């Protein structure tokens, strides 16, 4: 499959020119629209309505999320879903606690339009607030049936996979997060450690000193994913 060239600005979430809108306010890379439609059809055949809770997220939006957590304006949670007491942590510890669930601006896969967070609209009432938690996706959870079907559908091919399928010591497992591998792999190649560092060096971001001092470890642990065949 051929794709257009990827710019550094697109890899960093600074250029949305490659995106299309699939629902009000929800953008994805134009090249994944067809394979996503195929995945929709597979899930619908099993009685599930695959819906996108989150697609593209800009650099500025990710920056706002990160800064709010670093300032204590937004809760930072541990693996058990409990608020982390940030005041007792070093800057490095604060940074790594945030990165467990929230990417650095410039380092989020949602910048590319290749990655989506999904849920089953057929499993909930209109007023249900989708939280995107592990419990929702597990067997017996509200979206457990969808994810059981996705286990088979993703294995059968089509390009989508779960980049955070298990705990590798960096980002926490996110079964709801799907990535279109054939295209995401190309964005991964563009998003180098130096490109990310140069952008963050000129960004008004909290914990900047800790970020730049530990960027090598951050890039290896939270940005680079274990190589997989997709």
Key traits:
single chain, two-stranded antiparallel ribbon, Muramoyl-pentapeptide Carboxypeptidase, domain 2, disordered C terminus, 38% helix, 11% strand, four-stranded antiparallel β-sheet, alpha+beta, 230 residues
Explained architecture:
38% of the residues lie in helices and 11% in strands. With 230 residues, the chain is of the alpha+beta class. The protein has one domain (8-223): Muramoyl-pentapeptide Carboxypeptidase, domain 2. The two termini are 13 Å apart. Mean pLDDT is 95; it is low at 226-230. It comes from Gilvimarinus algae. This is M15 family metallopeptidase. Residues 31-181 form the D-alanyl-D-alanine carboxypeptidase-like core domain.
Itemize the secondary structure elements and their pairings:
Layout: H1 8-11, E1 19-23, E2 26-29, H2 33-45, E3 50-54, H3 59-70, H4 91-99, E4 115-120, H5 134-137, H6 144-155, E5 160-161, E6 177-180, H7 181-190, H8 193-201, H9 208-213, H10 215-223
Antiparallel strand pairs: 1-2, 3-4, 4-6, 5-6
